[in-house]
Amino acid sequence: MQGQTFSARLSAWLKNKSPKTIAQLDETFAEKSFAVAFLLLMATAAIPIPTGGITHVFEVITLLLAAELIAGRRTIWLPKRWRSLRLGKTLQAKALPKLIKFIRWFERYSRPRMSNLLQHRLFLQVVGLVVFVFTLAAFLAVPFSGLDTLPALGVMLISLSLLLEDIFIFIGGIVVGATGIAISIGLGTAFLTMF
Length: 195
Description:
By secondary structure, the protein is mainly α. The chain has one domain (6-193). Helix content is 72%, strand content 0%. The protein contains 10 helices and no strands. Helix 3 packs antiparallel against helix 9 and helix 9 packs antiparallel against helix 10. 35% of the residues are buried. The mean pLDDT is 82.
């Protein structure tokens, strides 16, 4: 698998017959398991469609993983029950193939920029903090408002920056996520001042 693009590795993982669980994901993408987990777990929240509350389950897991990254862990730890949580068939059949196209677009235009910084332990702890804040913003967004989309998309872009080792994508993720939080705060403030 070495030398393959990330989208090719993800596509191969999706096509193999093994169960699509977080544990399997960790085994397959060990060196970048946090980034891959954030990317896949926040993909449903980044799509502005009703998801029946499943996004909150994924966001709680993302919050736990972000806290682990802040604490300096290099490998994923989850309760046994959560490790065996399967990615839904709809996610596998519809969302992940679209996600792979999204990733391929970035692979076409990105190149390693400041990759040493993106792998530094202290920087990864900062990434964990940013992911935690953006995920919390998505989690606390008013249901069915679409306000969780931009913070979740920010997390996805930050994850991609780690996978593709491109600081420009990281900066884009910060801008997108922060914009989403600013819009949520602005709309919340405007709503409260109406009463």
